[in-house]
Write a structure and sequence with these properties.
Metallo-beta-lactamase, Chain A, single chain, binds zinc ion, zinc, four-stranded mixed beta sheet, MBL fold metallo-hydrolase
Length: 282
């Protein structure tokens, strides 16, 4: 599936689709609560009130660059906090190639943040070593985000992610640390969106009068647009993440901006009373 924003093409590559089983991420989004938001059904929830989400990458092709935004969970990883994310064997790279983007054609990788399901395909396992998957790419990590995890990957799960999916790319000399408000190309500017993680960044795309927002994990699911204070279990700073949701969604609500979430989308944000809701774009 692909969408165009002026001269920019955005393609969704799904690694894993999920319905339900997501309560561990958003404990407040019970089936009862979810059914109170009928606008979520069927695009973002089942009629029973189970959340529909996916783990995916967005490939962003501009007139000059081929960029992968976020790199899912990855194959062959071990020590993940979510047991069924260990030892995956998914055709993610084949799917990318089939969509017209073989790994060696990618020149830029950017991670909105350095969590387990956004860095996995940064590396792949070759003869017991983790090597960069996108050999011709510069990898852009947020400086704030990288510095945070360098000193805060203290529990075993975070340490494993940092060791097999972040540090090998740094050691291969392929990483550029960027400021959270950096301008990447004529069309793409970063927006600092802390809260879910210390240095989380969103991408703002503008081309020929059209706009898109790649919002990463500012929200894991559109239910957080109606309930801005529903933080995910993985938010580093819940107050800050609530604040960031309000600021970011206020800025783009009721505009034609297409919003591509880290685990949903695309669609458009509408104001709804004191909060927001989300309408899917097919
Ligand atoms: Zn995520």
């Amino acid at each position: 599936m692909a969408w165009t924003i002026g001269k920019v093409k955005i393609t969704k590559i799904v690694e894993m689709a999920l319905t339900g089983g997501t309560r561990f991420i958003l404990p407040q989004a019970t089936p009862e609560q979810t059914r109170e938001m009928p606008w979520l059904i069927p695009d973002f929830a089942s009629p029973e009130g189970r959340l529909v989400m996916s783990v995916h990458s967005w490939v962003v092709e501009t007139p000059t660059r081929r960029i992968v935004v976020d790199t899912c969970i990855g194959n062959d990883k071990q020590g993940r906090g979510v047991p069924h994310w260990n030892g995956l064997d998914k055709p993610f790279l084949q799917d990318m190639a089939a969509a017209g983007y073989p790994a060696d054609s990618i020149d830029t990788v950017i991670c909105t943040h350095l969590h387990v399901d956004h860095v996995g395909w940064n590396t792949r396992l070759v003869e017991d070593r983790w090597i960069p998957t996108f050999d011709n790419a510069r990898y852009l990590f947020g400086r704030t985000e990288y510095d945070y995890w360098k000193t805060h990957s203290t529990d075993a799960a975070h340490a494993a992610v940092f060791a097999d999916s972040v540090q090998p790319v740094v050691e291969a000399g392929k990483v550029d640390l960027v400021d959270s408000d950096a301008r990447l190309t004529d069309e793409i500017t970063l927006i600092p969106t802390p809260g879910h993680s210390a240095g989380h960044m969103a991408l703002h795309i503008r081309s020929e009068g059209e706009e898109a927002l790649l919002s990463g994990d500012v929200a894991h699911h559109p239910c957080q647009m109606a309930h801005l204070d529903w933080s995910s279990s993985f938010d580093t700073d819940e107050q800050q993440s609530t604040k960031t949701r309000r600021t970011l969604f206020s800025r783009f609500a009721d505009t034609p901006t297409l919003v591509f979430g880290g685990h949903f989308g695309p669609g458009r944000i509408l104001r709804d009373g004191d909060a927001f809701r989300f309408v899917a774009t097919q």
